[in-house]
Specification:
Elements (H helix, E strand, L loop, with lengths): L4 E2 L2 E3 L2 E3 L6 E6 L4 E7 L3 H16 L2 H4 L2 H17 L1 H12 L3 H21 L6 E3 L6 E9 L2 E5 L5 H14 L3 E5 L6 H12 L7 E4 L3 H10 L3 E7 L2 H14 L2 E5 L5 E4 L5 H13 L11 E5 H17 L18 H16 L3 E4 L15 E4 L16 E7 L2 H9 L6 E5 L3 H10 L4 E4 L18 E2 L4 H7 L1 E9 L13
Parallel strand pairs: 1-5, 8-9, 8-11, 9-10, 11-12, 13-14, 13-18, 14-17, 16-17, 18-19
Antiparallel strand pairs: 2-3, 4-5, 6-7, 7-21, 12-20, 15-16
Helix pairs in contact: 1-8, 3-5, 3-7, 4-5, 4-7, 5-6, 6-15, 8-9, 10-11
Amino acid sequence: MPAVTAYQMLIDGQWVDASDGARYDSVDPAIGDVWASMPEATSDDVDRAVRAAEAAGISGRWASMTPTERGKCLRRLGDLLADASETLGRIETRDTGKMFKETRWQAKYIAEYFHFYAGAADKIEGRTLPIDKPDMFVFTNREPLGVVAAIVPWNSQLFLTAVKIGPALAAGNTVVLKGSECSAAPILEFGKLIAEAGIPDGVVNIITGHGDPCGRVLTSHPRVARVSFTGGPVSAGHVIRNTAENFAELSLELGGKSPFIVFDDADIDSAVNGSVAGIFAASGQSCVAGSRLYLHDAIADSFLAKMTAIANSIQIGDPQAEDTQMGPLCTPAQIDHIETQVARAVEQGGRILAGGRRVDGMDGLFFQPTIIECPDPSMEIVDTELFGPVLAVLRFSDEDDVIAQANRSVHGLAAGLFTRDSARSMRVARRLRAGIVWVNTYRVISPIAEFGGSKQSGYGRESGMQAVYDYTRPKTVWMNLSDDPVANPFEPR
């Protein structure tokens, strides 16, 4: 039995256990062994983290830093992250089963998010107002909100940490970051870089634990000003109810069932590769996975022949190995959910073109790359997020019809379309009800571009300059420029 790594939480610059000593295990999904243990934060631990963040933002060194100084800390943090990308990638792969090739690259690229927000820190501007009072000068400043509760899931922890704490810190806020109860090791390892980057104690606190009490106490805490949550709709419902207690501002980045539309004039090879990347990369464990494939009748058969050939040839195995192309799922609950939904799809008339079951002869949580043709758009699998390597395929012949089908979903996070017709690409992109639309590409990200969804995929935006402003509130200042005394309001004028 390999040694188990015992992690601690980061509260007010100190690495600590839970106040009652409680812990829970983290399992390597590729082999099924416990490899790490995490503190189970108590209500008192959460309160201590929030109060530390509040103090750091009000009276600590962070509060007196200039925006330029804060930006230098963020730049240093990005540099340190890039230097540690291989180590962090290895740990994230072990904790989640994500491919090391992806986690290593992702950790290195995520540094760019901190560099972007480092540059944004001293670009936050107020404005002067052309007020309708001749003796008044009126201006606005944008001030930090206060303590931000950032809650991230297991599947893209370092990325989601960056898109939350990057703009929050650039705007001068302090943060309590809650890692996933499934696998929080990468975030805790990342936390070791905080002090080295010059960020004062208490500015970033990292806690671990389950939804109750850890998540519940954090999101309902009266000293939390904003909650930034990424996760599932059930947990989001709890968060919404919790913020009713503290009136915290709230942003939600939830799940998706993203449509991937291929028209008959598309570059088929390019579209096939885009669809493969959209659904089988990260074993389909992405909120933007292109899990609904809509194919024009004229090209559907040739497209599926190419895609099933690729799906059947994908090398599944150890996510740490360089020659592996797809790794395991993260949790047993996921693979059980997928098996249930695939079986139900077959009962409802779906036809399995590739995969459809667990991988034989492997002990970990491995599921085959799966393609299911769905004759009826009302089938349950068409609008149920599986968070795994399962693709629902539908056919269409009419542009208006496919747009209607794509929009007939409770989700609205992302969408993709492939066509050589530039006018059509603009028309369709405009009509798709999704927060992000990729045209002739898929799953491309940048710190410069905003990201977020609509409908049951959430609200609010991450990345880009909008995210910075979302972590501030304007303060209006009125200045009387007249030397005349203020009139007595009880004397007639």
